[in-house]
Write a sequence for this structure.
C-alpha cells in the first residue's frame, strides 16, 4: 500500500488552483481590481473588532442577520422578492455548491453540466462520489436546448450545475433555457451559478425571477467578484426553504465564523459603493471585447468581468509572452483560447500593449 493511504481516485491528482504569481498586472482569477474604500475597510474593522470581544462563544449557527441582509440585497433583482428563509450562505459559493452535492449527490447519483464549464464542478462530484456527466455547448458557447433536454432525460441527474454567465466563456443563459432544464430535471436540483450575475449586460435577466415557478431551482451568488470581497470568503444561494433546510443537515457546525458574518454584514452596508465600480468594469469589458475583435481575434460575447478570446495555434506561448511582460492572464477554456479578467483602465492598457508586442514577435 502506498503512503499516505489516499483514496484510489485521488492518487497523483494536483490540487486545483490558478498560479498565484507576484506580477504587476494580475488578470487571471476574475477578481475585482478595486479594493474596498477606506471608509468601508474601517467599517469592516470596527465590526470585526466588536465580534472579537465575543469570540469565546460559537457564532450564530443560523446567521439570521446575514441571511436577512442577503435576502434584502437579492430582492433588488426579482419582482417577487426573496425571504431570509430562502437564503443560505457559506465560505464562498464553492462551499455552498459542495454542500449541495453533499446533500443531493452521492454514490449512485449523477451531477451534470455542459462543457466548457467551471473547472471546480467535477471536483465537487469526485469529492462526494457523485457520477459526473458533461454535455456540450454549441460553437458560440450557447446551449443546444434539444441536446440539453435529451441528456437530462437520459441521465436523470440529481444535480445540474449551470454557470450563468458561464465561466470561462462569459455566456449568460436565457430564462427559457433555465425553465426548460428545471422542467426536464423532474425532482433533480438545477443550480444556476450566478457568480458573475452583477456584471450581466442590461436586458439580461437573473434566474432569481424564476424561483417562485420552480421548487427545484437554486440560484447561487458570491461576494467574491462584483462585491470585491474574494478574501472574505462569502458565497450564498437563494432557493426554496426546503432546500436550505436540507443543506443544514450536511453543513459543519458553526461553519460561518463570527468574523466572516461581521465582515459580510459590514460589506453589505457598503453595497452601493462596492457595486458602483461594476458599471465601470462592464464598460471596460465591452471596450476590451471590441478591441480584441478589431485585432482580428475571436471573442465570446461576455456578460461577465472577463473575456475569452482566441484562437492561437500555441496559446501557451502567448500566455507566457504576456507573463514575460508582467501581465498574468489565464490559460483555460477550449484549445487555443485564453481568458483575461477585466481590470482597471491602466491594467487593460498594459494588457493590450503586451498582447500587441507578443503577436508581433510571434509572427
Ligand atoms: C469565481 C467563481 C465562483 C465563486 O467562488 P467563491 O468560492 O465564491 O469565491 C463560483 N462559480 C464560478 C463559476 C466562479 O467563476
Amino acid at each position: 500500500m502506498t503512503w499516505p493511504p489516499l483514496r484510489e481516485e485521488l492518487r497523483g491528482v494536483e490540487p486545483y488552483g490558478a498560479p498565484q504569481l507576484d506580477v504587476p498586472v494580475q488578470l487571471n482569477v476574475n477578481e475585482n481590481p478595486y479594493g474596498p474604500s477606506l471608509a468601508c475597510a474601517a467599517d469592516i474593522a470596527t465590526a470585526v473588532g466588536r465580534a472579537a470581544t465575543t469570540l469565546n462563544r460559537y457564532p450564530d449557527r443560523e446567521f439570521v442577520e446575514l441571511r436577512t441582509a442577503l435576502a434584502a440585497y437579492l430582492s433588488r433583482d426579482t419582482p417577487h422578492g426573496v425571504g431570509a428563509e430562502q437564503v443560505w450562505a457559506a465560505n464562498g459559493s464553492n462551499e455552498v455548491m459542495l454542500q449541495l452535492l453533499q446533500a443531493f449527490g452521492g454514490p449512485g447519483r449523477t451531477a451534470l453540466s455542459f462543457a466548457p464549464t467551471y473547472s471546480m464542478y467535477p471536483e465537487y462530484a469526485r469529492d462526494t462520489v457523485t457520477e459526473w456527466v458533461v454535455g456540450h455547448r454549441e460553437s458560440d458557447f450557447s446551449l443546444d436546448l434539444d441536446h440539453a433536454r435529451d441528456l437530462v432525460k437520459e441521465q436523470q441527474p440529481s444535480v445540474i450545475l449551470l454557470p450563468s454567465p458561464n465561466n470561462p466563456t462569459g455566456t449568460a443563459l436565457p430564462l427559457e433555457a433555465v425553465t426548460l432544464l428545471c422542467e426536464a430535471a423532474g425532482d433533480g436540483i438545477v443550480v444556476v451559478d450566478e457568480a458573475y450575475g452583477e456584471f450581466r449586460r442590461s436586458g439580461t435577466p437573473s434566474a432569481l425571477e424564476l424561483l417562485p415557478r420552480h421548487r427545484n431551482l437554486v440560484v447561487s451568488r458570491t461576494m467574491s467578484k462584483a462585491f470585491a470581497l474574494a478574501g472574505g470568503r462569502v458565497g450564498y444561494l437563494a432557493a426554496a426553504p426546503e432546500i436550505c433546510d436540507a443543506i443544514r443537515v450536511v453543513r459543519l457546525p458553526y461553519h460561518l465564523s463570527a468574523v466572516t458574518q461581521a465582515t459580510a454584514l459590514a460589506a453589505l452596508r457598503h453595497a452601493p459603493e462596492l457595486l458602483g465600480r461594476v458599471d465601470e468594469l462592464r464598460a471596460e469589458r465591452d471596450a476590451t471585447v471590441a478591441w480584441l475583435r478589431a485585432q482580428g481575434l475571436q471573442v465570446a460575447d461576455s456578460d461577465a468581468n472577463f473575456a475569452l478570446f482566441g484562437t492561437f495555434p500555441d496559446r501557451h506561448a502567448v500566455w507566457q509572452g504576456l507573463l514575460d511582460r508582467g501581465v498574468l492572464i489565464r490559460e483555460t477554456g477550449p484549445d487555443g483560447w485564453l481568458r483575461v479578467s477585466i481590470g482597471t483602465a491602466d491594467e487593460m492598457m498594459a494588457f493590450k500593449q503586451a498582447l500587441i508586442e507578443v503577436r508581433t514577435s510571434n509572427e
About this structure: The mean pLDDT is 96. Residues 30, 92-94, 118, 163, 167, 193, 195, 222, 224-225, 230, 235 surround pyridoxal-5'-phosphate (CB under 6 Å). DSSP finds eleven helices and twelve strands in the chain.
